[in-house]
Amino acid sequence: MPTPSDFLKYTQWSGIATLVFAALVIVAFIFKWGIRFRLVGTTGFMLVLTGGLFALSLAPLSRTVIPGAVRYNLVYDNGGTQTVIAIPPKITPSELEATLRQAASDLYSYGRFGTQTENQLTIRARTVLHPETGISVPLYLGQVKRSLTSREDSQLAIEIYQDKFAQLPQSIS
Predict the structure, then answer these.
(1) Spatial distance between the Cα atoms of 136 and 7, rounded to a whole number of angstroms
(2) What single-letter DSSP state applies at residue 169?
(3) Sheet architecture: strand order including 82-86
(4) DSSP strand E in 70-119: where?
(5) What is the CA radius of gyration of the chain?
(6) Kind plus residue range of the DSSP H or E element containing 159
(7) Cβ-proximal residues to 54 (8 Å cutoff; 6+ apart), any chain
(8) CA–CA separation, 136 vs 170, rounded Å?
(9) What whole-number distance in Å separates Cα of residue 90 and Cα of residue 167?
């Protein structure tokens, strides 16, 4: 994954190419070349491309990876204070804790709105059990609460429902 410093390098090269196209446009207008208006469009595109690359060089694109976290799917997100993730039924409590930490890091956004009573993002982890054919039962295994205002929240409140793990299917080894 490209880093912001990589995008800064791309911005410099794109800026140089933009200046070359701008000089070419000036030459094309002086000598009344037939492609001069196409070169104006190309130069405008290069300006937009350079601006986009510059913007990407300012924003951190790196993603925090929590060791031991398993893959999850986002099931529900109200854009504010409530989200639900789906996890596989064969998960351990330690993997669940790492996955909740990963989800808390991944789902943080400056654009989330809190309420006057709740200024925390609650992420609930659930799996789906199938006790009989055609019947699905959601089973919530844990949750994490994090601040909506601070990206680096050291006060994550992680709850793991140990009693629910007894209901999970046992793996046959």
Answers:
(1) 46
(2) P
(3) 73-77, 82-86, 120-129, 137-147, 157-160
(4) 73-77, 82-86
(5) 25
(6) strand 157-160
(7) 7, 8, 11
(8) 17
(9) 11
Q: Per-residue confidence at 63, pLDDT binned at 50, 70, 90?
A: confident
What phi and psi values does residue 60 have, to the nearest 5 degrees?
Answer: -75, 125
Residue 11: both structure tokens together: 């911005």
Q: How far apart are CA 99 and CA 64, in angstroms?
A: 12
Contact call for residues 58 and 4 (beta carbons, < 8 A): yes
Cβ neighbours of residue 156 closer than 8 Å, sequence gap 6 or more: 101, 104, 144, 145, 146
- What's the confidence (pLDDT) of residue 111? 78
At 173 the three-state DSSP class reads: coil
| CA pair distance 87, 99, nearest whole angstrom | 9
Residue with tokens 């398993």: 70
Contact between 81 and 149 under an 8 Å Cβ cutoff? The reply is no
Which of the residue ranges 55-59, 86-90, 140-144, 163-167 would you say has the lowest mean pLDDT? 55-59
Write down the pLDDT at residue 118: 77
pLDDT in tens, 95-104: 999 999 999 9
- Compute the average pLDDT of residues 161-166: 93
111 against 39, higher pLDDT? 39
3 residue type, one letter: T
